[in-house]
Amino acid sequence: MPNEILSRTALSKYRGGLTDYVSASRLSLWLRCPLAFKFRYVDGIRTPPSANLFLGKRVHDGLEYYYRHAQAGVRLSGPEVARHIARHWEGAADAEQIVWEKADDSQSLLTKCQDLVACYLDRFADAGEQILGVESAMEATLLDPVTGERLALPMVGIVDLLVETNDGPILVDFKTVGRGGTPVAQQHEIQLGCYSLLFRELMGTLESGLEIRSLVKTKRPKVEVHRFEPRSARHLARLFTVIREYLKAIQRGVFNFRPGMACLFCDVRETHCPTWSGHRSPIQKEEDGIWPNC
Amino acid sequence: MTLKLQVGTSRKVATGDFGSHGANCSIELSLDPLAMEQPDVFQKRLTQLFKTCRQSVQDELERQIGSDRIGQPDRSSPTIRIAHDRVSQNGGGGRRTGRQATEKQLRFVHRLAASISELDDHTLATLCERMFNAQLDNLSSVDASGLIDTLRAISEGKLTLDRLLNRGSVDDAQ
């Protein structure tokens, strides 16, 4: 990778090239639909976030604000965090080029955001958690745990929260979701596996667990905590199998579409996807010359 | 081809003064792939390794609690790393050893700090101590990344130094 990742901010601003690094979000999008992945990471097509995605980002920002202070030993009140969210709401919406459909959409979403964060703080503000890291940017070499082989690209990622517990450190990811319920084990496997790899390499120790803390956007907000065991050798072997396949696809330039339920939430469903004719990309044609048997 | 095996365990014990003692131990081994062809032997060996880790952690905790001295130099063998950690007593940041901050990160911290008028060396040291329970030169890579983001947020007016240092009750910059 040409640039060392110094911090979360740097990573967020750094739109690395396709062959600069691997990340959980890249892997997840590629698994969901290689064509959507191509539009985003090869063609560089970016669309403004949906209102729901924007809400999720602002919830993250509110929690980051709370936890940065908590890490410095300062306990903020719920209203103080709510005021922070309100103060930065419009600026963030402008920066993200959010277009509100109705005049009061912005205000109602802001209220929802504040309610979600307040609900979270009701549950966790008194938990007395020891904070090891907030929005921690991490970069690690990819060493296959089975073969010991070092892969060509590093992995990067941002872990929302690192918390010390009596059993050891846990890695926490915040999610803003429409409905609650226990996730199936595979649902977050790629993301959790990536975070575990990053954490182990940087901290030289194993995590004692991983958590998804879901802020559920029901009429009356609620928070669900889903705990996952430390990643096993099997988890990591599965992850590396996916990474290898991903790297191979990148190298060959093969990005087929994958129609399914995920299309319902896809940004490029109506704009770019219909233009794809199924023809091989120029990159693939070039690769075919090099790898005639592929 | 070799197999890489990593086992480890960690434990933290609360103390009466809202702090804690903690230790972790991990062992990393390279194995012949043939080891997997004897699953019973492999499992037995794995159990033994975990037992060794648990015992080392227990011994270390007893030593810490007995002498109440934390952060002694690591006297473990090259293949066994024991990381000592100390959790802050201010209710804030914890401390866990990890890969050291890079020079580039530290240089960037100083550059950012210099751009914040009220942040002198002493205040920067205080902030580090409060957030990471460590001096600037001893920050881990993850700590340094967190510090950089915090300093950026201060310079962008998203956080205020006074509030982070608990010197005022006002919210962040208006």
* SSE order of chain B, one letter for each helix or strand: EEHEHHHH
Count of DSSP-assigned helices of chain B: 5
Largest sheet of chain A: 6 strands, mixed
Approximately how much beta-strand content do the residues of chain A carry? 15-25%
Q: From N to C, what is the helix and strand string of chain A?
A: HEHHHHHEEEHEEHH
Alpha-carbon distance between the two ends of chain A: 28 Å
Shape estimate of chain A: globular
Radius of gyration of chain A: 20 Å
Top CATH class of chain A: Alpha Beta
Helical run tally of chain A: 9
Give the class of chain A from helix and strand content and strand pairing: alpha/beta
The helix/strand class of chain B is alpha+beta
Poorly predicted residue ranges of chain A? none
Descriptive labels:
heterodimer, A: 294 residues, alpha/beta, Lambda Exonuclease, Chain A, six-stranded mixed beta sheet, B: 174 residues, alpha+beta, elongated
Give a brief description.
The complex is a heterodimer of chains A (about 290) and B (about 170). Chain A has about 290 residues and is an alpha/beta fold.
